[in-house]
Amino acid sequence: MLIGELCRFGGRVRSFCVAASSASLSTSTRNMAKSKFEYVRNFETDDTCLRNCYIVVRLDGRNFHKFAEQHKFTKPNDNRALGLMTRSARSVMEELEDIAIAYGQSDEFSFVFKRTSTWFKRRASKLMTHVASQFSSSYVFYWKDYFGDQPLLYPPGFDGRVVLYPSNRNLKDYLSWRQADCHINNLYNTVFWTLVQKGGLTTTQAEERLKGTLAADKNEILFTEFDINYNNESALHRKGTALIWEKRDETVIKRVKGPNEEEKEVPVTRCRRKVQAYHCDIIGEQFWEEHTDILEDDNC
Q: How many CB atoms lie within 10 A of CB 169?
């Protein structure tokens, strides 16, 4: 009787078997995914960045003094190297559009993520490693665009750190600190290499000459001994580079078909966001007043 019932409902039995088989397979897959080794995930630490804070990822060249020497960078500033740094930073911003502003000088660049950013669930390790890897690979990729046939002798290295800033004032003070550092270092290097290249001093003698001098003393050496007004030096070298997003109209020519099926060229203008570079003072308020969309309201 049981066999007869099974035969009579054979189709239904087969359907039941298929469903049971699928359920069994699903259960088996879940069991395989949760292996006995999965407990090691408990060793991972939570590195989620605090909400409502700007996330700053700063990269610095690792042992770049040696790198610059071996690749014969021009002293005190090599525009090829600075251009390559900026191009690499632009690549990072184009990849991670939640970066509101980036600032760079010498062998460093700082990237500021919006307070509201949710990229990589705000995990510090993810943000830092993605910025560092994108920047480093771009530096190698675009090397020939700036150094031509000069070979890249070995891959450059960049270390990174993540710092959170809760207010607009904190963030502006951070960027002001980095630009002040740019001024201090560039003024010293400008005087140092002028004493060596034009004054005939050795590097040891130049270092001894500048020991204990203030900014006014360095400016005086440049002006009285070499007729150089430091304020007339390149803004790129004195101020560094700020990268921000700006909307720009872009006109392209498109071919369209008219009512009589004839093609004609028509100019089409679109508004696009592009990364723009500025070599200007970011310590004062003028820059921020002209670019009000960079910072987010402290009261939000």
A: 11
